[in-house]
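ok so I'm stuck.
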Amino acid sequence: MRAFRQTAPVLVLVTLAASSGAFALGCGSKAPPAATPGTHVDPASPGGTHDQSKWPADDHSLCDWRGKPELELSETAGPGAMRPNVRRVFKTVGERDNRHRTLICREIDSNLDGIKDVVRFFNAKGEAQREEADTNYDGKVDVWLSFVAGRLAEVDEDENHD
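replied:
not stuck anymore, here's the structure
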């Protein structure tokens, strides 16, 4: 249940700062170094692990791309990742001369545990529409961002983890 709702930009910066690590891997900014044995980075999501040889077969994809041949996937490894942790889903839109490929969904495994925990959806123009994130890595979405014309308009946050 969403226990907190904020539409004014006052707490937007706090929320964005708290989840900036999730965006850092997808945006090419410097990420914290990868964990080495005996060090602690972030807790793994339920079913996830920092040992990439034990990553689950299902990465809990948040983009709806399976079984849709009209969509094109691109997977990349962000800084510190040994395996792809950023997935982008593209769709070709438009007719004839106006035909172009546009990003419709991007998801990120921000703590490198093999489970996707941030997803952003885009419209046919490539403008952000909404984003969902599991910022405490417990396997449940706890932050919802809404965008209007590609700009952040509303932040909903589950503060009581229900």
